[in-house]
Amino acid sequence: xxxxxxxxxxxxxxxxxxxxxxxxxxxxxxxxxxxxxxxxxxxxxxxxxxxxxxxxxxxxxxxxxxxxxxxxxxxxxxxxxxxxxxxxxxxxxxxxxxxxxxxxxxxxxxxxxxxxxxxxxxxxxxxxxxxxxxxxxxxxxxxxxxxxxxxxxxxxxxxxxxxxxxxxxxxxxxxxxxxxxxxxxxxxxxxxxxxxxxxxxxxxxxxxxxxxxxxxxxxxxxxxxxxxxxxxxxxxxxxxxxxxxxxxxx
Length: 250
What we know:
Elements: H1 2-24, E1 29-47, E2 50-68, E3 77-83, E4 95-101, H2 118-131, H3 144-162, E5 185-188, H4 192-200, E6 211-216, E7 219-225, H5 231-243
Antiparallel strand pairs: 1-2, 1-4, 1-5, 2-3, 3-7, 4-6, 6-7
Helix pairs in contact: 2-3, 3-4
């Protein structure tokens, strides 16, 4: 009987300790600031509340200085991303962004009337898996072709987010706003044929990238690919998952 009481007390103590650890688990954040551009070029867009806006389409370089939870997937330093929110502007000082599933972005939802859904997130994941080039990221001297392709990739991302989901990917067209009302997207001064060819290739059979969104209410939101973690990081993440399991006491 004493042994049963001891085991019961130990189990209760372990559950309490694990509950405290779970409550202390940090939310998923990254501290980032926009520092410049990777491969990119000037693009003229209609979308996100803008008409004939000239801005950069391509890789947005961010400097990450801290993170919690999933935010620690990215080591501190430069992170190459793509903008997913046309209605807000880049952060000019370090801000703490939330890290969320891509389908939960962009935030706030006021302009789009809600986040992109899982289908759009899947299309962007395949677009990234098929056509993203890591050579677009950084501060190197990029070729004209790299700039054109990165710009076309950005246009394809915005097309997916801001247009209504078409019956077929073959109906996406960055040259034409195909959505009624203030929503929709089109662009000029970009490699639009490249963007359309990539969009039309999205049939669900291509490789899918593991993506997250960095979101902040009041500043531009971004897509980032989750880097392949170092073995030590994998061990720590696995350990964290085990810690959150509640043991069954008998």
